[in-house]
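BUG: 3D viewer hangs when loading the predicted structure for this chain

Environment: internal workstation, default settings.
Expected: structure renders.
Actual: progress bar stalls at 90%.

Input used:
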Amino acid sequence: MDRTPERFLLNGRAIPKLDRAKSAIAVLKEDPAMEPLYAAFSRCIFRALEGLPAYGFRFGSVEDQRRNYQSAADIGADFSLPLHGKAELLQEWFPDAFAEIKEAFQEAFPTVEKLKVHRRHYPKLAKDGASFITLTARESGVDEWISFADMSSGMQRYLSFLVHLSFAPPGTVVLIDELESSLGVNCLPAVTRFLLSRAPDLQFILTSHHPYIIEQIPPTHWKIVTRKGSRVRVLDAGELPAMAEGRSHLDRFTRLINLPEYEHGVQG
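Structure tokens produced before the viewer hung:
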């Protein structure tokens, strides 16, 4: 498939110009060759770190939710559940699973003594009986619980990874742009180890410029992506001489970004 402002080729044959506001996959979703691809992309969930209002996140009764989930894996497979609702269900019905998340979180943030989902009811805000919940942490030497909204961005990001990915079903594809974003040197190793521990079951597509992450991810998992206009090429790193064995990961990465393909950025 080759799509430019002047033409649209599908399997080498020109087709009429179509709605440019939609992707080619969406436009051609009825085509038998495109239907599986469209169905796969339709299952994607775009999820940024969830922010919280000052009083928390609105969620229904835990008891009402219980019958829908027989295991932590069932909860992990439901990506429609918001971060705090998923955490509360794990805490109440599968405490061993929630304890795993807490222990992993404490590895990165050892001053955290407790992790808990708090639920509060505000009659004026939720007259139907729903409550407002939020993940909270208790740090040593601090009297008050720290709500998710008041945590550092690194804490928020790692908690989001732990809750959503610890029990995600095998085969789940996870895209993370700029993995190191908001992660300090204290938690970056723990985050990287956690993602690598889930790598045998999940497929991660990560971008990063951080030397630590580059050193931790074997070059056999690197993909080289180049783009000229609408034509995109993806190569295994091993196909390039600059990626030859015997060099450090960082040296390979430095050689990679100095390749002619990247000298002038994306080519028109």
